[in-house]
Amino acid sequence: MRPDSARLGSARLGLAGLDRLPPAVRRPAYDRSRLTPGIVHLGLGAFHRAHQAVVIDDCLARGSSSWGIIGASLRSPDTRDALAPQAHLYTVAVRAAEGTEHRVIGALLDSVVAREKPAALVERMADPATRIVSLTVTEKGYCHTPQTGDLDERHPDVVHDLNNFDAPRSAPGFIVAALARRRAQGLSPFTVLCCDNLAANGHTVQRIVTQFAALRSRELGKWIADNAAFPSTMVDRIVPETTDADREAVANALGMRDAWPVMTEPFTQWVVEDRFTAGRPDLAAAGVELVTDVKPFELMKLRLLNASHSALAYLGYLAGYETIADTMQDPHFARLAARVMEDAAVTLTMPAGTDLAAYRASLLTRFSNPALHHRTWQIAMDGSQKLPQRLLGAMKDRLAKDLPIATHALAVAGWMRYVAATDEQGRAIDVRDPLAGEFAALAREAGPVAERLAPALLGVEKVFGPLGAEPRLREAVTAALGRLYKEGARRAVETLVSA
After folding, report:
1. With the CA atoms of 312, 242, 96 and 134 taken in that order, what torsion angle do they form, in degrees rounded to the nearest 10?
2. Degrees to nearest 5, angle at CA 271 with 265 and 272
3. What whole-number distance in Å separates Cα of residue 416 and Cα of residue 478?
4. In what order do the strands lie in the sheet with 90-96?
């Protein structure tokens, strides 16, 4: 949501006002004038500002003064326009049932809008001072096929970037253009640090980037593959969309206006493979878990947190619940979330000492946080990009173990009912997804008939791949979709968890 600047008033958060903040509000614990940038972050959204930027803020407070962040929005100028008048300071409001804590973050030094000046962003990324390029561009921002993890060579942005190498649009295009310039100048590559929910995200982004580079030059692709680092990561923090009411609450706490604060929860986690080509800040001192292999933690989060989140989002939305916390107030939906986690847990192999039961319990508590207004509609976005990692992988593994998949099948059926774009009261659903048009066409042709709609959507190769033809999966999903059409989401969930 774009901030309503007309309502913000004249007393605005900024460097000059830091000393006037109430004592309870934390502020940057360092001399911001001494900072220099070392990180360029692609995808300057709320999640980055509530997660990675907070960690870097802690690092700066510990003396890592050369690791400031330059943020880049690939398309929209909204965040830049909101934060530039505030010297890119902003507030993180950490909400718990017992109250809210406010903290002003100073790690973001500047921001650019890639579409306005693509060459300037490439130049900044190619600068020797840039040692890390991090990303939160969401799953769809990688121009890839989620089912295979390969670059989608027919994606419009990929086609554009191959023909406009120095004025790219996509995240892979910017990364390759900047790395090509560094190679030409005899510089070492920066580390590419993906912080999105992709399966094996570092390896996946490395494959996408090297495939893109090889289309431009085989030698460039090989140089990147041989020299650049793409550590995998796992990130975890719930960050709802900021509302005007949130801005008012933050203004009251600060005594001045912040055009774009971010809301979040107390819990935060960042697990990173310790592979960097050009150094890094002291992440461990700021609470980051540095590991040799992040895959077990990544799968744990995708299949426990993200999968149950998606199940609650689609089925909760259909049942009429606006937020995840609202949905969790219904004991049947709370049991649904627990069941998704229980069924997925048997597909995981975790390092010794990992307490999956405690992790699952913590997720249920976090989802129920009444102070966190995380909208089901927001989580439901871009499901075609999320399903393979969140739900389908666990379904494939359970089928291989000859285990039932009814719980996950109902979640997938909820997604199908949702992308058909009409809710249980006959109202239109605003489906936000790269494949929304294709889904809508299939839904119109099939009608609200599970035996026609389920096979049609399961046949979408970009989402389901070969798994969509698996007879046991087709049977389970079709049956679940039939119950949704016949009984509605509330009753279908109740029937499932009561069985």
Report:
1. 80
2. 140
3. 10
4. 99-105, 90-96, 262-264
Strand, helix or coil for residue 243: coil
Closest CA relative to residue 14, chosen from 68, 85, 67: 85
Q: Which helix (H) or strand (E) holds 289?
A: strand 289-291
Three-state DSSP class for residue 424: coil
Write out pLDDT tens, residues 374-422: 999 999 999 999 999 999 999 999 999 999 999 999 999 999 999 999 9
Give residue 116's identity as a one-letter amino acid code: E
Terminal CA-CA length for the chain: 41
Measured between alpha carbons, how far is 91 from 46 in angstroms, rounded to an integer? 11
Identify whether the C-beta of residue 180 lies closer than 8 Å to the C-beta of residue 229: no
CA distances (Å), origin 252, targets 27, 50, 71, 131, 292: 16, 20, 27, 38, 44
Query: What is the CA angle 427-429-434, rounded to 5?
Result: 155
Taken in order 27, 30, 33, 38, the sign of the CA dihedral is negative
- Residue 422 has φ and ψ, to the nearest 5°, of -135, 130
Q: pLDDT for 254-278, tens place per residue?
A: 999 999 999 999 999 999 999 999 9
